[in-house]
Specification:
This protein is of the alpha+beta class. It is 47% helix and 21% strand. Strands 5-6-9 form a three-stranded antiparallel β-sheet. The protein has a two-stranded antiparallel ribbon with strand order 1-4. It has a two-stranded antiparallel sheet with strand order 2-3. Helix 2 (16-32) packs antiparallel against helix 4 and helix 6 (125-141) packs across helix 7 (149-164).
Amino acid sequence: VLVEVNSETDFVAKNPEFVSLVDGIANVILDKKPANMEEAMKLELDGISIEEAIVNKTATIGEKLSFRRFELVEKTDNQVFGTHMGGKIVTLALLEGNDTEVAKDIAMQIAAMRPLYLDRESVPEERIQKERGILTEQAENEGLDSNKLPMIVNGRLNKFFEEICLVDQGFVKENKMKVSKYVESKNMKILSFVRYEVGEGMEKKEENFADEVAKQING
């Protein structure tokens, strides 16, 4: 199970009470296997709901805490997990096979290269068409031969896939080899992956320090 619980500062993230809360939430979710966040928030942790536990710890620690998301992944006996625990970036890869070193390599790849999808088939058609439109417009603005536009756009679209699709990326330890070729050479297959980066997609408040001090003085 992967969980993301946010605090406002790094200082609180290292607080033993906060760490204990995160561990508790992860263990309860692993045990009860809720289907979504709504179910997860109602699960019992130390005699109260996870939702109440977060509210209580917010009051105790003095910083707003929030349980943002979780992902449960299960494997069979002929599958293996690869994990990368980098503090603010955590990845979990699920592979067919039993080579743990290969699985670790793939987890590291996911952390470093930020793939959005496993393969081209996983990319929503809407996303592909949007990118194709952008690339076509760029090529037209460059004044390129209109007869060659489709070929040029397809070439650039392939580059796009190589950036966002895990199996199409160059392998970080040997860039001339694609990830797909690396795992094939080890008789493995990537089935799925999860990548969490703390706070990704969240709007960050940029407080003007001078204004903040002025507010406190005037207040």
